[in-house]
TrEMBL record:
Protein known as: DUF2619 domain-containing protein
Membrane-spanning parts: 6-27, 39-63, 69-88
Swiss-Prot/TrEMBL keywords: Membrane, Transmembrane, Transmembrane helix
Superkingdom in the source lineage: Bacteria
Length: 89
């Protein structure tokens, strides 16, 4: 089986992100403090959207020429709308 380099990059980014999430959960448990858990969770809020954007753009780069420009634009617009909706108070 031959692994595509872009697919491997997406997989590794997701593994890193998952490891970070599990580590954060462990730290919240270990500190046993609501304030510290809130701070850790807030830091994760910066990582999540970045991982989403990075993996999506890697995927789009790899699929360039195989999907229509309209589909690519709609996908990016949808992701941006998700991120904007998370930022609205």
């Amino acid at each position: 089986m031959s692994w595509d380099k872009l697919l491997l990059a997406i997989i590794m980014i997701r593994v890193f992100s998952g490891t970070l999430e599990i580590t954060a959960a462990y730290l919240m448990y270990r500190f046993n403090d609501l304030y510290k858990a809130f701070v850790i969770n807030s830091l994760l809020a910066f990582v999540g959207p970045g991982v989403l954007l990075l993996t999506t753009f890697i995927g789009l780069y790899g699929l360039a020429g195989r999907i229509s420009l309209l589909k690519a634009v709609l996908l990016v617009a949808g992701i941006l709308l998700i991120i904007i909706s998370l930022r609205i108070k």
